[in-house]
Amino acid sequence: MGQDWTQLERALFDPAGHPGRVAVAEAVRELMRAVATTTAATDDELGEVAGRLRQITAGIVAGDRCVRYPLPTGPFSGRVLGSGDPVFGMFNPVAGPLVVTIEPDGTAAGVLTPSPLFEGPGGAVHGGYTAFLVDAVMGTLLRALGISALTGTLSVRYLALTPLARPLHLSAWVESTDGRKVTAAARITVDGRPTVTATGLFIAAAGPAQG
Ligand SMILES: CCCCCCCCCCCCCC(=O)SCCNC(=O)CCNC(=O)[C@H](O)C(C)(C)COP(=O)(O)OP(=O)(O)OC[C@H]1O[C@@H](n2cnc3c(N)ncnc32)[C@H](O)[C@@H]1OP(=O)(O)O
């Protein structure tokens, strides 16, 4: 594996240089969780909170796209830090954020404790969300390996319900490459037990890498 990712992230994206943006994303993440889960506040109280929140939002000029740094292309290893990405972006309140590390052996490992905002049936994590996570960890791995590719076909097998409020351990690796077609695989494990496996057929860009 080539250059250490941490050298690259320092050059391209240093969260320490944007403490306000990182802090506001974290605060909004906490707010979303509180709003979606509170049983203590009355409807009147929440209506009053909504008014105050609208005042805060009115003081921030919104743009059309998430603020994000250009995505580097690999090969790199080490921890991936994201900016505006919805999976691991530290500037994006919707992001887990998933912490992804590209291992020296060319695989990816990630960990995330899912928010109750992503609850699906049976008090477990929504299957669309786990599909989102496995797609992202495979896509990130390919990018880190220097392959700029889009998901062509994603196949997800749900082995068991994925519990909320437990750390999800994600792993991804490349199965095979056939010209522009790259097959990657991923798994989610909770407490040592696999709950989701996935295969992604990624189609590498015919031209230069996209940001
Ligand atoms: C370092 C890390 C940094 C951090 C990075 C963060 C990254 C974030 C990661 C987040 C990750 C998020 C990830 C996302 O969210 S990616 C977003 C979701 N994906 C898309 O939106 C893709 C939309 N589709 C397309 O753009 C095109 O259809 C693509 C690019 C897929 C192919 O169109 P293209 O015109 O280029 O291809 P071609 O027609 O010349 O065909 C070429 C070959 O491919 C085969 N084929 C084609 N399509 C499919 C298919 N669907 N399944 C299976 N196979 C398919 C085809 O048969 C042919 O094979 P053959 O006949 O040669 O054998």
TrEMBL record:
Could you list this entry's UniProt keywords, alphabetically sorted.
Answer: Apoptosis, Cell membrane, Cell projection, Cytoplasm, Fatty acid metabolism, Hydrolase, Lipid metabolism, Membrane, Transit peptide
- Tell me where in or outside the cell this protein is found: Cell projection, Ruffle membrane; Cytoplasm; Membrane
Coiled-coil positions? none
Q: Please state what class of enzyme this protein is.
A: hydrolase
Q: What is its EC number?
A: 3.1.2.2
Q: What CDD domains is this protein classified in?
A: PaaI_thioesterase
This protein's membrane topology, according to the annotation, is: Peripheral membrane protein
User: Could you confirm whether the keyword Oxidoreductase appears in this record?
Assistant: no
| InterPro entries referenced in this protein's UniProt entry, alphabetically | HotDog_dom_sf, THEM4/THEM5_acyl-CoA_thioest, Thioestr_dom
Q: Where is the Thioesterase domain?
A: 122-193
The record lists the catalysed reaction(s) as: decanoyl-CoA + H2O = decanoate + CoA + H(+); (5Z,8Z,11Z,14Z)-eicosatetraenoyl-CoA + H2O = (5Z,8Z,11Z,14Z)-eicosatetraenoate + CoA + H(+); tetradecanoyl-CoA + H2O = tetradecanoate + CoA + H(+); hexadecanoyl-CoA + H2O = hexadecanoate + CoA + H(+)
Q: Which family does it belong to?
A: Belongs to the THEM4/THEM5 thioesterase family.
Q: Extract the PANTHER family matched here.
A: ACYL-COENZYME A THIOESTERASE THEM4 (PTHR12418:SF19)
Name of the featured protein: Acyl-coenzyme A thioesterase THEM4
